[in-house]
Amino acid sequence: MIKKTIACLTLVSTAFWASTVVSGTLDNVKSKGELTLGVSEGVPGFSAPDDKGVWTGFDVDMGRAVAAAVLGDGDKIKYVPLASKQKIVAVSSGQVDITSRTTTWTMKRDAKQGVDFTVPVFYDGQGFLTTKASGVTSAKQLDGASVCVTSGTTSELNVADFARANGISLETVVFEGKKEAFHAYTSNRCDAFTTDMSQIASLRTTVANPDDHLILPEIFSKEPLSPLVKHGDNQWKDLVTWVINGLIEAEEKGITQANVLEMKASSQDPTVQRMLGVSGDVGSFINLDNDWLVRAIQTVGNYGEIYNRHFGPDTKLKIPRGLNNIWTNGGLLYAMPIR
Amino acid sequence: MQRKFLNLFIQAGVAGAVAFVSWTLFQNTQANLEARNIASGFDFMSVESGLPINDSLLPYEPSDTYGYAFFIGVLNTLYVSLLGIFAATAIGVLIGCARVSSNWLVSRLAAVYVEILRNVPLLLTLFFTYVVVLASLPHPRASLNPFTGIFINNRGFYLPAPVPYAGFWCVTAAVLLSFLMIFIISRVSKRKRDETGKGLPTLMIGASLLVAVPSLTWILSAPVVDFEFAVLKGFNFRGGLVLRPEFSALMIGLVLYTAAFIAENVRSGIQSVNKGQVEAAKALGVKSSLTMRRIILPQALRVSIPATTNDYTSLVKNSSLAVAIGYPDMVSVGGTIIGQNDQAIEIIGLWMAVYLAINLVVSAIMNWLNAKVQVVER
Amino acid sequence: MQKPAAREKFKPLASEPAPIGLIGPIGWVRANLFNGWFNSFLTIICVAFLGVIIPPFCSWMFFDAVWFGDSETCRAASGACWTFIGHKLQVFLIGPYPTSEIWRPAAAAVLLAALILATTLRLGNKYFLVILWLLYPCAAYFLINGGWFLPRVDQSRWGGLMLSIGLALVGILVSVPLGILLALGRRSRIIAVKSLCVGIIEPIRGVPLITILFMASVMMPLFLPEHLQINNMLRVQIGIILFSSAYMAEVVRGGLQAVPRGQIEAATALGLNYWKMNYLVVIPQALRNVLPSLIGRCIALFKDTSLVIIVGLLDFLGAAKAAAQDSNWLGYDAEAYVFCALIYWVICFGMSRYGRSIEARTTVHH
């Protein structure tokens, strides 16, 4: 009896001990054969399952680009829906390889919470949504109003800061999930709803009468949304960073999903040749073969195409590009040189 | 001798295994915390929180520290638990007595209530109360106004807030004084009844004291209290006493749920009293209300107090469900703090410490009560 | 002796029926509803209360309700919208499980129904049934998870009633033996074992289940080494098992205390060692003593699985909540929660009835 116990304990402890070798995420993904992607629980436009349960969205496309670059197939992804509170821990604990989940790049998260951000893919800001019936035209008129907000987000902290900075008092009602917070707003528990502007636009499309609701003009925080990876795995971080840089640079150079193969065959631009693997071996810098960017663009297109697919004028969301345009068009997207 | 050696060996083995597992876990945790850049220790308690908490007993601003925010959460938990215990006991005893009533309709209704609430999860009751019942209340601009100064809408129950003057404390002192006098009179009456068989009419004397003394003090020390009414300004009502829908839903759900369990305890307690007691009381001509009060209930209490202790500690623990409907109790605030700075181990340790402390206090009080009602055997 | 003269036999009067006011329905009403002025007063209040509550409730639930149709019909009607439940039934029952593999949870459900039927009707040998119950979770896990020749369905897609029942079933099957071990350990005379068991039982019983779930969900990844990470559902299951074991341990401890000391002494005298004695003599009696409380704990465990929504799992209650927040079907929270409550009530009430029937069967009458 005692012997059995000791034997069991030895086995268990050996299992704990034998595992001191830490392998990098890239090797992990390659050996698994699929990319574990953290997504939201369903935010239209960014990451949401459609009727058949297939995940689509802006964030999803970023993940698919990485999967295509590394594994050759943008569909080799395991989607893990994450609640707001879990999104950082899921990455820092290695539960997911990469999270693209409308996460704001803040100092605390980057430096103190065991994650690293890659490239801002969406420059967002926080705003308020309220009903037209309330007669409010500016956020500063919301003194005494109750505001629904999601717990564990930067929105919660920002709205308190906004109230303090502008000398108004807001009754914040905090909910566990964004859907719940929005549901409470639409059932009139709160006078206003606050989160990032892009998500306000996306959630507004889900109500019966979107025109009854007004997005107030004040944008009172900087919310650069960026995919994040685990802290300390520089090889993986570089890979993801440069895949996304590649998508942005592709829009700058006019490489689209339709013409990528043609560009690869016939372009004379040295930058394009380097990017698409015709010359040089930039792929090896991030431990990939030379077709990494070709595959990524074939799967999801360049940044502009991804944006238009989910937020363009043909979609329900219709978010103007604004700051989310390449620098030559007056936006903030500036890809680092691929050489 | 061999047996003793075996025991020692087992003890050493178990202690060694526990130490080994603990040490391995400790090492793993250290490594993981470092890898994720998560701080350790309670320094975060003195950092400014920035968290908005809209329902607090003491004044709170987002510029206060994490430690103070957590303390507000603890106060809320204690507040809900205390109110809940009293309300649930009152309602539970009522329903328990109704359950054994001779009125068929009343006992069946009580049975239906108990069966429904005991077999449905508390979280479901909370959600139902919060999302369906309270959310269907009207918008502040169209509030229900049953009495002056009382407004009911989907942002809360608004009551007039009392603003005390100096006279208020005099009246409070007078009320306490009259309670003390009633207590003394009841002791005197009991002793007189033990000696002569006929006590004083405590009910009459007590009632008149309770009415007369405070009223006299009120008249003599006016002004006593003023009321601040809630007024609709802009979006919501301001001023007055507010019971937010989150708090109301939590209280209603907790109290109704725990009352069902307490009712069952009371019922089994009453039914455990020997039928012979009731028959003897009838034979002696004792009134039925007196039978209930002086013969059945004291004996029933003896049986139901241990089970009720369990229900009280359950109520305290169930108050943690506030996190699901947004009431800022200890678990809710702690969870938000974990979401901000990932120091889960410290916060969870604090939770465990506070809940264990509350449970110890409640168990100690109930054990004292239990000891007091035990039959003193000769 | 001469026979006494035949007398007129005593002819009693014909018995009349009892007064109408004392028998039959009127008598019953007088005895149960109107006996005494206080009771009459209460009856009148109750009838008034029922009169105010029942008609609107019935018209909402049944008469004005919409049974077929779509979202438009529902919005136009004033009653409950049961088509909403029909549309969302799949999400309620199995969560986001892929529709193409729906036969797998269905098969697991059929097996479970068969097992429940066999147990309640007491078909077959008792030990055979116990073995079947212990094997069932493995079979169900294989069916629902996949692997070998069935395509895998990831655990993030498990949800609904299937997840609730799964968590509860595995919780019960593992926590009862674990609880028995803890209870035995707590009664042990070896101080280390006893302190270990008390050190496990008391803190777990003193904190709410939510704290344990948070610990399992958030803290366990910190305790385990990097690559030995387990997914969220398994962590939550472990948390539920730990929590339930502590309570089962206390219940079993009560039962162990009620086993007469003579049994243990007799068993020792017969030469049974510690484990044989417990297995053959003490535990069966202890369990029989506390069977009602054990079943009560099982019911409580099933209800407690509804808390997993707070750590991100989509169980039955979570599915109801999510369904009510679907943007195409807004405003039907009441229907979702009423349906959810109905199913929970049926299952819990059924379990408590079964418990009472076992109790009636196994009570040892001295």
Condensed summary:
The complex is a heterotrimer of chains A (339), B (378) and C (366). Chain A is α/β, with parallel strands linked by helices and 339 residues long. Chain A has helices at residues 2-17, 25-32, 58-71, 87-92, 107-112, 154-166, 178-186, 197-204, 234-252, 260-266, 270-275, 282-285, 292-300, 303-311, and strands at residues 35-39, 48-49, 55-56, 77-81, 98-99, 115-117, 122-124, 126-131, 146-150, 171-175, 192-196, 213-215, 223-225, 228-230.
Structure description:
The complex is a heterotrimer of chains A (339), B (378) and C (366). Helices cover 40% and strands 15% of the residues of chain A. By secondary structure, chain A is α/β, with parallel strands linked by helices. Chain A folds into two domains: 25-123 and 225-329, D-Maltodextrin-Binding Protein, domain 2; 133-221, D-Maltodextrin-Binding Protein, domain 2. In chain A, strands 10-9-11-8-12 form a five-stranded mixed beta sheet, sandwiched between helices. Chain A has a three-stranded parallel beta sheet with strand order 4-1-5. In chain A, helix 3 runs antiparallel to helix 13 (292-300) and helix 9 (234-252) packs across helix 13 (292-300). Chain B is of the alpha+beta class and 378 residues long. Chain B folds into two domains: 66-139 and 244-373, MetI-like fold, CATH 1.10.3720.10; 164-225. Chain B is built from twelve helices and eight strands. Chain B has helices spanning 2-35, 66-99, 104-118, 122-133, 166-196, 202-220, 245-272, 275-283, 288-318, 322-325, 330-341, 344-373; strands at 144-147, 150-153, 156-159, 161-164, 225-228, 231-233, 236-238, 241-243. In chain B, the strands form three sheets. Chain B has a four-stranded antiparallel beta sheet with strand order 1-2-3-8. The longest helix of chain B is centred in the N-terminal third of the chain and has 34 residues, at 2-35. Chain C has 366 residues and is an all-alpha fold. Chain C folds into two domains: 27-63, no CATH class; 76-97 and 153-362, MetI-like (MetI-like fold, Orthogonal Bundle). Chain C is built from 14 helices and no strands. In chain C, helix 7 runs antiparallel to helix 8, helix 7 (160-186) runs antiparallel to helix 12 and helix 12 packs antiparallel against helix 14. The longest helix of chain C is centred in the C-terminal third of the chain and has 31 residues, at 274-304. The model of chain C has no long low-confidence stretch (mean pLDDT 88). Chains in contact: A-B, A-C, B-C. Chains B and C meet through helix 1, helix 3, helix 4, helix 9 and helix 11 of B and helix 2, helix 8, helix 9, helix 12 and helix 13 of C.
